[in-house]
Structure prediction request, 179 residues.
Amino acid sequence: MSRFPIQTVDSAPEASRQAVEALRTAFGFLPNVAGTMATSPVLIGSLIALFGKVHGGSFTEAQIQVLLLTNAVTNGSNWAVAFHSALALEQGIDLSDVSAVRSGTVPSEPKLTAVSRLARTLIEKRGKLTQEDSDAFLDAGFTPEQLLEVIAVTAASTITNYTANVTNPPLESRFSVQA
Prediction:
Protein backbone atom coordinates (compact mmCIF):
# COMPACT_ATOMS: atom_id res chain seq x y z
CA MET A 1 0.00 0.00 0.00
CA SER A 2 1.23 3.46 -0.87
CA ARG A 3 2.13 5.85 1.89
CA PHE A 4 0.03 8.38 -0.05
CA PRO A 5 -3.26 6.74 -0.94
CA ILE A 6 -5.61 8.41 -3.39
CA GLN A 7 -8.58 9.33 -1.25
CA THR A 8 -12.16 9.51 -2.48
CA VAL A 9 -15.05 11.49 -1.08
CA ASP A 10 -15.92 8.42 0.99
CA SER A 11 -12.42 7.53 2.19
CA ALA A 12 -11.07 11.04 2.84
CA PRO A 13 -10.90 12.31 6.40
CA GLU A 14 -14.13 14.07 7.36
CA ALA A 15 -12.35 17.45 7.45
CA SER A 16 -11.26 16.99 3.81
CA ARG A 17 -14.55 15.88 2.30
CA GLN A 18 -16.02 19.29 1.48
CA ALA A 19 -12.85 20.30 -0.39
CA VAL A 20 -12.72 16.94 -2.20
CA GLU A 21 -16.33 17.33 -3.30
CA ALA A 22 -15.69 20.91 -4.47
CA LEU A 23 -12.75 19.80 -6.63
CA ARG A 24 -14.70 16.83 -7.99
CA THR A 25 -17.51 19.21 -8.96
CA ALA A 26 -15.12 21.74 -10.52
CA PHE A 27 -13.34 19.17 -12.71
CA GLY A 28 -16.10 16.61 -13.18
CA PHE A 29 -13.82 14.06 -11.49
CA LEU A 30 -11.35 14.08 -8.61
CA PRO A 31 -7.80 14.47 -9.94
CA ASN A 32 -5.48 11.87 -8.44
CA VAL A 33 -3.19 14.53 -7.00
CA ALA A 34 -6.16 16.04 -5.13
CA GLY A 35 -6.98 12.57 -3.85
CA THR A 36 -3.51 12.31 -2.36
CA MET A 37 -3.80 15.81 -0.89
CA ALA A 38 -7.04 14.87 0.84
CA THR A 39 -5.10 12.80 3.38
CA SER A 40 -4.19 16.17 4.91
CA PRO A 41 -7.19 18.40 5.62
CA VAL A 42 -4.79 21.34 6.04
CA LEU A 43 -3.25 20.83 2.59
CA ILE A 44 -6.47 20.20 0.66
CA GLY A 45 -8.16 23.06 2.53
CA SER A 46 -5.34 25.42 1.60
CA LEU A 47 -5.59 24.44 -2.04
CA ILE A 48 -9.36 24.82 -2.22
CA ALA A 49 -9.20 28.30 -0.67
CA LEU A 50 -6.67 29.41 -3.28
CA PHE A 51 -8.39 27.52 -6.11
CA GLY A 52 -11.55 29.59 -5.79
CA LYS A 53 -9.61 32.85 -5.71
CA VAL A 54 -7.39 31.91 -8.66
CA HIS A 55 -10.25 30.84 -10.90
CA GLY A 56 -12.39 33.79 -9.81
CA GLY A 57 -9.71 36.43 -10.34
CA SER A 58 -8.99 38.79 -13.19
CA PHE A 59 -7.15 36.44 -15.56
CA THR A 60 -8.89 34.51 -18.32
CA GLU A 61 -8.98 30.75 -17.91
CA ALA A 62 -6.52 30.46 -20.82
CA GLN A 63 -4.09 32.82 -19.06
CA ILE A 64 -4.49 30.85 -15.83
CA GLN A 65 -3.69 27.59 -17.62
CA VAL A 66 -0.55 29.14 -19.16
CA LEU A 67 0.49 30.31 -15.70
CA LEU A 68 -0.18 26.88 -14.18
CA LEU A 69 1.58 25.06 -17.02
CA THR A 70 4.60 27.36 -16.77
CA ASN A 71 4.75 26.77 -13.02
CA ALA A 72 4.49 23.00 -13.51
CA VAL A 73 7.35 23.03 -16.01
CA THR A 74 9.48 25.30 -13.83
CA ASN A 75 8.83 23.14 -10.76
CA GLY A 76 9.52 19.92 -12.69
CA SER A 77 6.13 18.38 -11.90
CA ASN A 78 5.43 15.79 -14.61
CA TRP A 79 1.89 15.07 -13.41
CA ALA A 80 1.00 18.78 -13.46
CA VAL A 81 2.69 19.37 -16.84
CA ALA A 82 0.49 16.71 -18.45
CA PHE A 83 -2.64 17.89 -16.61
CA HIS A 84 -2.22 21.59 -17.45
CA SER A 85 -1.12 20.88 -21.02
CA ALA A 86 -4.44 19.15 -21.58
CA LEU A 87 -6.42 21.89 -19.84
CA ALA A 88 -4.58 24.63 -21.78
CA LEU A 89 -5.46 22.90 -25.06
CA GLU A 90 -9.08 22.63 -23.90
CA GLN A 91 -9.02 26.39 -23.30
CA GLY A 92 -8.00 26.98 -26.91
CA ILE A 93 -4.29 27.60 -26.38
CA ASP A 94 -2.53 26.68 -29.61
CA LEU A 95 -0.55 23.42 -29.51
CA SER A 96 2.60 25.30 -30.56
CA ASP A 97 2.22 27.62 -27.56
CA VAL A 98 1.68 24.69 -25.18
CA SER A 99 4.76 23.03 -26.68
CA ALA A 100 6.74 26.25 -26.26
CA VAL A 101 5.93 26.48 -22.58
CA ARG A 102 6.72 22.79 -22.11
CA SER A 103 10.12 23.30 -23.73
CA GLY A 104 10.95 26.27 -21.50
CA THR A 105 10.27 29.03 -23.99
CA VAL A 106 7.27 31.32 -24.24
CA PRO A 107 4.00 31.35 -26.19
CA SER A 108 3.72 33.51 -29.30
CA GLU A 109 0.76 35.63 -28.12
CA PRO A 110 2.15 38.71 -26.30
CA LYS A 111 -0.06 38.58 -23.19
CA LEU A 112 0.55 34.85 -22.78
CA THR A 113 4.27 35.52 -23.23
CA ALA A 114 4.13 38.07 -20.42
CA VAL A 115 2.27 35.80 -17.97
CA SER A 116 4.48 32.82 -18.75
CA ARG A 117 7.71 34.81 -18.47
CA LEU A 118 6.62 36.38 -15.16
CA ALA A 119 5.59 33.02 -13.70
CA ARG A 120 8.90 31.39 -14.57
CA THR A 121 10.91 34.38 -13.36
CA LEU A 122 8.97 34.58 -10.10
CA ILE A 123 9.80 30.94 -9.30
CA GLU A 124 13.39 31.01 -10.54
CA LYS A 125 14.19 34.21 -8.64
CA ARG A 126 12.22 33.11 -5.56
CA GLY A 127 10.05 36.21 -5.80
CA LYS A 128 12.94 38.66 -6.07
CA LEU A 129 11.79 40.37 -9.26
CA THR A 130 13.78 43.23 -10.71
CA GLN A 131 12.12 46.43 -11.85
CA GLU A 132 12.66 45.19 -15.42
CA ASP A 133 10.86 41.93 -14.64
CA SER A 134 7.87 43.80 -13.26
CA ASP A 135 7.89 46.42 -16.01
CA ALA A 136 7.86 43.76 -18.75
CA PHE A 137 4.66 42.32 -17.31
CA LEU A 138 3.03 45.71 -16.72
CA ASP A 139 4.07 47.01 -20.15
CA ALA A 140 2.22 44.05 -21.72
CA GLY A 141 -1.04 45.62 -20.50
CA PHE A 142 -1.40 44.07 -17.06
CA THR A 143 -1.95 45.93 -13.80
CA PRO A 144 0.01 45.96 -10.54
CA GLU A 145 -2.93 44.10 -8.96
CA GLN A 146 -2.57 41.35 -11.56
CA LEU A 147 1.15 41.07 -10.89
CA LEU A 148 0.30 40.39 -7.26
CA GLU A 149 -2.44 37.98 -8.37
CA VAL A 150 0.22 35.91 -10.15
CA ILE A 151 1.68 35.24 -6.69
CA ALA A 152 -1.63 33.63 -5.65
CA VAL A 153 -1.67 31.49 -8.81
CA THR A 154 1.92 30.48 -8.08
CA ALA A 155 1.03 29.56 -4.51
CA ALA A 156 -1.83 27.35 -5.69
CA SER A 157 0.27 25.63 -8.31
CA THR A 158 3.15 25.14 -5.88
CA ILE A 159 0.80 23.17 -3.62
CA THR A 160 -0.19 20.93 -6.53
CA ASN A 161 3.28 20.66 -8.08
CA TYR A 162 5.02 19.80 -4.82
CA THR A 163 2.30 17.35 -3.81
CA ALA A 164 2.59 15.57 -7.16
CA ASN A 165 6.38 15.48 -6.85
CA VAL A 166 6.22 14.07 -3.31
CA THR A 167 3.34 11.61 -3.72
CA ASN A 168 3.81 10.63 -7.39
CA PRO A 169 0.14 9.90 -8.13
CA PRO A 170 -0.68 7.98 -11.30
CA LEU A 171 -1.60 10.17 -14.25
CA GLU A 172 -5.21 9.82 -15.33
CA SER A 173 -5.54 8.08 -18.68
CA ARG A 174 -7.23 11.08 -20.31
CA PHE A 175 -4.00 13.10 -19.76
CA SER A 176 -1.53 10.39 -20.75
CA VAL A 177 -1.11 11.76 -24.28
CA GLN A 178 0.41 14.85 -22.64
CA ALA A 179 2.84 12.90 -20.44
About this structure: The domain at 61-167 is CATH 1.20.1290.10 (AhpD-like).
